[in-house]
Amino acid sequence: MEVKRDILWRVYLCFIGMALFGVAILGRVIYIQQFQGAYWRDQAKQQQQRFIEIDADRGTIYSEGGDMLSASIPFFDIYIDFAADGLREKNGKRFRENIDSLSISLAALFNDKNAAAYKKELQQQYQKNSRYYLLKKNISFEQYKTLRAFPLVRQGKNRSGFIAEVKNKRMTPFGLLANRTIGLSREYIDSDGKIKNSNVGLEHTYDEALKGESGKRLVRYIAGGVYVPVEGYEIEPEQGKDIVTTIDVNIQDIAENALLRMMEENEAAHGSCIVMEVKTGKIKAMANLGRRPDGSYWEDMNYAITASEPGSTFKLATMLALLEDKYITLNDQVNLEKGVWKVARRTVYDSERHMRTNVTAKQAFEYSSNVGMAKLTWSHYANNPDKFINHLKKLHFNELSGIDLAGETTPIVKNQKSKTWSATTLPWMSFGYEVLVSPLQTLMLYNAVANGGKMMKPYLVNEIKHSGIAIKQNSPQVVEARIGSEETIRQLQECLKGVCAEPGGTGYSLFKTAPYKAAGKTGTALVADGKRGYADHIYQSSFAGYFPADDPKYSCIVVIKNKPFAKKYYGGSVAGPVFKEIADRLYALNVDEDRNRPAYAIQPDSAAYRYAGAAADMKNILAALQMHYTDSSGKSEYNRMRNVNYRSVMESITVDKDQMPDVKGMGLKDALFLLENKNVKVIAKGRGKVSAQSVEAGAPLAKGQTVRVELN
After folding, report:
1. Per-residue pLDDT at 189 exceeds 50
2. How does pLDDT run across 313-339, given as a tens digit for each residue?
3. How is the beta sheet containing 270-277 ordered, strand by strand?
4. pLDDT (tens digit, 9 = 90+) per residue, 456-476?
5. How far apart are CA 79 and CA 153, in angstroms?
6. Per DSSP, what are the bridge partners of residue 46?
7. Alpha-carbon distances of 572 from 397, 510, 580, rounded to whole Å
8. How far is residue 440's CA from residue 346's CA, in Å, rounded to a whole number?
9. For 513-554, what is each residue's pLDDT tens digit?
10. pLDDT tens across 575-615, in order?
11. 257 and 305 co-located in one domain
12. Quick check: helix, strand or coil at residue 283?
């Protein structure tokens, strides 16, 4: 009995323990369900669902004439949700009825496999009940439009299971043209595995305006780490703003091709060319070409805003200082010492050996004599170098130009406190050595002389637009109201004309037969090649000036860095012909414009108008009529055109599910197609275009609802 009681006691004890354990589990379950249920359900959702960022359509960069220089082109990834209710209902009847015709259409569109292979692929994925199957990647907008009309696909996402995911790729329609100035797009993959772009040029400077506001989309993760969008949980992104540049496509093409031809002929390392509008400071063209390992050229670096020793084009600043301080007149004599002069234990050489001795200061400039400039500067500023340097500061050579481009390198203008200042720094500065300035800064000086002494700030962007409306406009800015007296500027203009018009001038042979007068200056600078120094005899050739000389419209600078031991390296024979070709072609263009300009001015039409309809149809009509318009519609299927500040602006029409669209301005065909696809009944009255609608745009629509539209 004792043993039996002992066994029973143990059994009862185990039973009670198990009962208590069961009650504890049951209590915990009830507690979790009743008190922590919401928390754990939310945690589960967070594991399965999350918001992802939707990139906005990036704004477009336009030339001054309205040509697209950089635009986002849509590409589409096509997925199929084979578990879609519409595809599975009635035991897959809709899928079976359409698979043959769909397979034939896909084979004809993509031409990568036959219809039988497509049918087999679709059937296999249907049997597997694949949730987000990638059918095609990176198809074009034209292919996507064709695909939407295919059997089954045209029945909509819910019935067909077809899902299109759009992504944009940045394209430059003009290819190489101003590519570095507009901005290169370098792709990289971010921490979320998304492809992003790193930009330079205008794309970088105006990135905040161009990129727009990102949207958000709720997605649900399924097997394999693939996610599918959750219907109805989406915040639409806001399209980026458009940038209208000062670039003229024709001038850019002329400048770039002229530069490229010379660089290919001379096998140059790199070069740049800038064309500026004299009165405003607008950059009409900016070309930057660098030689690649295979011998071809590409816009790789922005050499136009990279500081280097300018060489003899800097002599214009030296002449300005001497004339402004009244130390010399153009007729004062200077001994060129036959092109060789010693100062402070160093020797100054003219670029070409000659036998000239006494010449006027003007002739010394025209002959581009290093000895002449160094002797004049040394004799008048050796005891007070700061007076000379202050002139350079007034010309803003010691600071950035302020152009709206990132990456401008800092210029260097030495003074007596500089660590590398020596007894020969001043005379060497007079002819463009021991000073670092960019081609753009040099051009600002020449442009100021052409502009009567008024120095303009260079700029590349005219305005920023949102939906075709200008929200910010840039206007010409004066950097220095007068860089010198009227007399000084007149004498400088005379010197620059002499370079191109007087026998012996370094630009005379270029322009002696030209039908117009030019003003400019050649430059040839020996430049260092890294650790090798000057041993490789690498020369930088340059030409800066403006045209026509009597009524300047454009200023221009060409700078080319030649290969080692190049046979042709003088500024007048390398950079000069590029300048001449640009000037010739722009002169011819302006002559043609003047000849064809009507004797009366056409007044802009201020009448208000409003048209709307299918985007593709509207664009086809506008193209056929050769009408100019500003396109801010993006990828919208339906667009509206209206008059804004005397300009025709095309905007997108938002078409949301279960909401009334704005059909005013549409023809009856487009209005009926759009509304009847929303399963509403349409009653139309009148002829012409829709002038009124009974349901306001954006109001909710119910299936079978009646909508009245009045046509004018």
Report:
1. no
2. 999 999 999 999 999 999 999 999 999
3. 297-298, 283-291, 270-277, 554-561, 538-547, 519-527
4. 999 999 999 887 788 889 999
5. 11
6. none
7. 24, 8, 10
8. 31
9. 999 999 999 999 888 776 776 778 899 999 999 999 999 999
10. 999 999 999 999 988 776 555 555 544 455 545 566 777 87
11. yes
12. strand
Which tokens belong to 433? 């050595």
Contact 195, 206 (CB under 8 A): no
Structure tokens, 98: 């359409």
pLDDT on residue 619: 78
Q: What's the rounded Cα separation, in Å, for the pair 423 and 436?
A: 18
State whether 147 and 259 are in the same domain. no
Cα separation, 654 vs 698, in Å, equals 9
Which residue's entry shows tokens 């609608």? Answer: 693
Backbone angles phi, psi at 161, to 5 degrees: 85, -5
Q: In a 3-state reduction of DSSP, which class is residue 36?
A: coil
Q: Can you tell me which residue has the tokens 């004049």?
A: 376
Q: Which helix (H) or strand (E) is 10 found in, with range?
A: helix 2-35
Range of the domain at 350: 249-593
Q: Tokens at residue 608, please?
A: 């208000």
Tell me whether the omega of the peptide bond preceding residue 173 falls within 30 degrees of 0, making it cis: no
pLDDT confidence of 49, banded at 50, 70, 90?
Answer: low
pLDDT in tens, 387-437: 999 999 999 999 999 998 888 999 999 999 999 999 999 999 999 999 999
The values of phi and psi at residue 453, to 5°, are 105, -5
Asked whether residue 598 is domain-assigned, the answer is: no
| pLDDT-based confidence at residue 46 (cuts at 50, 70, 90) | low
Regarding whether 380 and 407 lie in a shared domain, the answer is yes
239, 254: one domain: no
Does the pLDDT value for residue 712 go beyond 50?
Answer: yes
Encoded amino acid at 636, one letter: S
Residue 228: pLDDT above 70?
no
Q: Choose among 519, 525, 504: nearest CA to 555.
A: 519
pLDDT over 80 (residue 4): no
Q: Of 401, 390, 545, 392, which Cα lies nearest the Cα of 479?
A: 401
Domain identity same for 7 and 72: no
Could you give the CA distance from residue 255 to residue 582 in angstroms, rounded to a whole number?
6
39's CB contacts (< 8 A; 6+ apart) are none
Q: What CA–CA distance (Å, rounded) separates 263 from 286?
A: 16
Q: What is the pLDDT of residue 3?
A: 66
Phi/psi of residue 369, nearest 5 degrees = -85, 120
Give the ranges where 382-424 is alpha helix by DSSP (H).
385-394
- CA–CA distance, 634 with 74 (Å, rounded to integer): 9
Alpha-carbon distance values, 463 to 17, 60, 64, 172, 245 (Å): 81, 12, 10, 20, 7
Q: Same domain for 227 and 281?
A: no
523 within some domain: yes
> Is the per-residue pLDDT at 661 higher than 50?
yes
Number of H helices, E strands in the chain: 21, 33
The answer to whether residues 194 and 256 belong to one domain is: no
Number of domain units in the chain? 4
**Cα–Cα distance measured from residue 158 to residue 544, given in angstroms and rounded to the nearest whole number:** 65
Torsion, CA 662, CA 664, CA 667, CA 671, rounded to 10: 30
Q: Quickly count: other Cβ atoms within 10 Å of residue 290's Cβ.
A: 19
Mean pLDDT of all residues in the chain?
A: 84
